[in-house]
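Onboarding guide, step 5: your first structure request.
Type a short instruction followed by the sequence, for example:

Predict the 3D structure of this protein.
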Amino acid sequence: MSQPPSPDPPDPDRPASPWEEPTAGPEPPPSHRADPNQPPEHGAAQGGQPQWGQQQWEQQQQWEQQQQQWGQQPQWGQQHQLYGPPKSSATNVLAILCLVFAFVFAPAGIVLGHLARRQLRTSGESGGQLATAGLILSYIFTALGLLACCGWAVLAAIGGNDSGTY
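The system replies with structure tokens like these:
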């Protein structure tokens, strides 16, 4: 529902009411008019006052210029990744080797896993999950191997003392 028009002339210093409808749309800058030397059309801002919607139109133009400077054409619904290196489909070789060596020789898997994670931070390759899985398995298998060695040493020490009493 709209308000009845006020009898007073509009005050240029008073902000427009949300119930009042603008008299004209935004005026494009001179660079987008057919003749830049031609005076502004009817309803254009006068006295340096921006017309309704002018700020949004200028922001859209700035955004489109930035996209063109970055070498991308603006498209609605297109997602942009602003930070980080571009993702590639190549998998880091050290991440694969880390997972393999977790089963073959776990201490080497630990070293390869840490080297792979360092490379992945800078290269943008995929394989972070492989390196993490390889590191976890390498640490588990190394811990189990150390426990087995310590248990064998304890059993050997105990078994060595009992064999002399017979």
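Each response can be followed by summary notes, for example: Residues 128-162 form the longest helix (35 residues).
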